[in-house]
Design a protein that fits this description.
The chain is of the alpha/beta class. The chain has one domain (about 1-150): 2-Layer Sandwich (Nucleotidyltransferase, domain 5), CATH 3.30.420.140. It is about 45% helix and about 25% strand. The protein has helices at about 5-10, 50-65, 85-100, 115-125, 130-150; strands spanning about 1-5, 20-25, 30-35, 40-50, 70-75, 105-110. Strand 5, helix 3 (about 85-100) and strand 6 (about 105-110) form a beta-alpha-beta unit. Helix 1 packs across helix 5 and helix 4 (about 115-125) packs across helix 5. The chain starts with a strand and ends in a 5-residue tail after the last helix. The mean pLDDT is about 85.
């Protein structure tokens, strides 16, 4: 089931359970995980973007090992709210993951997540090369944190 609101996602989830966040970039897919209580998100690995089968296998291992209850995928909208090719690619990834795993999927507006991740990494004095290899996983953590904050907020949207 693919949804676009925190309320619909929350309704589809069991009480608690780890969530995995994905930031589908053009060359890599950033991965982040949150704790079972939905308090904090942590950047994980960055996986190469290639054939879906390889990504599916890598995600399946993490989903099984960590007992993931749901997936949050960054939906790259334009600043005016319209959707372009990157948003279409995120929607295609969501459809593929929906067919592969019996987990609820939340498409989360990720405007400015990469810029926020870049700023945070610069503040940490991370080298340009290190930032390039980790940017998508840090952006995934920002996306996932925003989603879990919304899930935990009173008066869920």
């Amino acid at each position: 089931m693919i949804v676009e609101t925190a309320r619909a996602f929350s309704d589809a989830l069991p009480d608690g359970g780890m969530l995995i966040g994905l930031d589908p970039g053009t060359k890599t897919v950033g991965v982040a995980l949150c704790d079972a209580g939905w308090r904090f998100a942590t950047a994980g690995k960055t996986m190469p973007r290639g054939k879906f089968g390889a990504l599916k296998e890598a995600l399946a291992a993490q989903i099984t090992q960590r007992k993931v209850a749901g997936i949050v995928i960054g939906l790259a909208k334009n600043m005016d709210g319209s959707e372009g090719p990157r948003a279409q690619a995120a929607r295609a990834l969501a459809r593929n993951l929906d067919a592969a795993f019996a987990l609820p999927i939340l498409l989360w507006d990720e405007r400015l997540s990469t810029a926020g991740a870049e700023r945070a990494m610069i503040e940490q004095d991370m080298s340009r090369a290190r930032r390039a290899e980790r940017i998508d996983s840090h952006a995934a953590a920002i996306i996932l944190q925003a989603a879990i904050d919304a899930l935990s907020a009173p008066g869920l949207d």
